[in-house]
Write a structure and sequence with these properties.
It is a single chain. With 482 residues, this protein is α+β, with helices and mostly antiparallel strands. It has three domains: 220 residues, FAD/NAD(P)-binding domain (3-Layer(bba) Sandwich); 154 residues, D-Amino Acid Oxidase, Chain A, domain 2 (2-Layer Sandwich), CATH 3.30.9; 82 residues, BFD-like [2Fe-2S]-binding domain (Arc Repressor Mutant, subunit A, Orthogonal Bundle). It is built from twelve helices and 22 strands. The strands form five sheets. Strands 1, 2, 9, 10, 11, 12, 19 and 20 form an eight-stranded mixed beta sheet that branches. Strands 13, 15, 16, 17 and 18 form a five-stranded antiparallel beta sheet that branches. Strands 6-7-5-14 form a four-stranded mixed beta sheet. Helix 1 links the parallel strand 1 and strand 2. Helix 1 runs parallel beside helix 5, helix 1 packs across helix 8 and helix 10 packs across helix 11. The longest helix is centred in the first third of the chain and has 20 residues. The protein starts with a strand and ends in a 25-residue tail after the last helix.
Length: 482
Amino acid sequence: MNASYDVIVIGGGIIGTGVARALSRYKIDVGVLEKEPDVCWGTTKANSGIVHAGYDAKPGTAKASFSAPGNKKYGGWTENLSVPFKRLGSFVSTKDKSQLDKLENLLEQGEENGVEELEIITDRKRIEELEPNITEEVEVVLYAPTAGVVAPYKLTIALFENARENGVDFHFNAPVKGIQKGEDEAKFTIESGGGNFDGKYVINAAGIHSDEIAGMVGDDSFSIFPARGEYHLLDSEIEGYVRRINFPLPTQESKGILVTPAAEGSIIFGPNHQPLEEPSVATTKEGLEKVLGGAMKLFPDIDTGKIRTNFAGLRAKAGSDDFVIGESDAADNFVNVAGIQSPGLTAAPAISEHVVGLLEDLGLELIDDSDFDPRRNPIPKFAEMDIDEIAQYTDKYKAAKDIVCRCEEVTRAEIEEAIDRGATTLDGIKFRTRSRMGSCQGGFCTPRLIEILSDKLGVSPKEITKKGDNSYLLAEETKKGE
């Protein structure tokens, strides 16, 4: 396929979809190129899901400039997109009052960054009221009530759906292979696995590969150094045991191993910090032991027998340890949005709006589209319905009477709608519906999901994958029925 656009966005993570959705409110042609079969399969997929208050970033950095403003935009962002978001508040805890000066420094830094409502709590009774099960050794905490949690995959999918509804084209399985700079109005020709695309402006939001994309236009001004973070995910049976986002005192490398509720239930431990020569999301025995040990320092009595699974994600760390946002010196109208590690999820709403402003400054004419609709309707969730809603839902959709994922109570109707909205893989269905996220981790529902995907997509079950590429689940038939 070949196509021409005013703006081409490279990358379908939280930044790429956020920028695309922000641009979709104007009368311009926008295309997004994503190398995977779906959005949100890079850094955005596997992280803590924390919307930080904004006290941790050093004042004057890009991280500081975008964190607090991004946090403030989350309420409107998630409400319009119908995505779960909870302002739980966060703790930075210490067991030693001699460390009080470090918490005071974080508070002052946060206030300079524009963070509101920060306070230091030294009253043990109040600490226990806010977080009853935290270790009794904690003596003082920095409390940031504006911090929250969100499901990053759900948010990115929602941004994708809303941008697409407002006219943005998404091209999947389209890895960028080369970029040619032109002299005429079509400044760039991008060669990808999904065809060739011409664009007047290019947004490089390619995550851990953003330095490679920049290099295609002669920009070697930054390098990306991938780092891995490993996590434990606990069963939703103990939802409520942890009430806030809990951090230890941060180090220069990271904010430390946290313990937090997840936006959709359960509890998360992690991450650690492992610099890598080559990207890898394989978990390690040593890394997971470190994560567990760090979590137990804050919640020593938590039931570790409820650990459901573990996973790892990647961070795209720039050499400057700050976000890299701006027009490239090597190519006019080529904008890098790179090095978006934590607090990138927090900053995403503010970064998206900033990038639109950059494009306007570079000469892109922005005319409001009166047809733009900021709202997106979610897939109805059977598990959250009351009796009357279930009756109406099952009357309307016969497939709603067929529960496919018993752990998470996901119906065939939800799965079919997820496919209609763009899911083509098992992971695509998982991130949209939570099927295969329950206690059995897909042990019972996976065969049904393969069957439904096969029927809806009109392909052989052998062609169904977990996450695209060569992640096939079936090889050959072992027997045939009549």
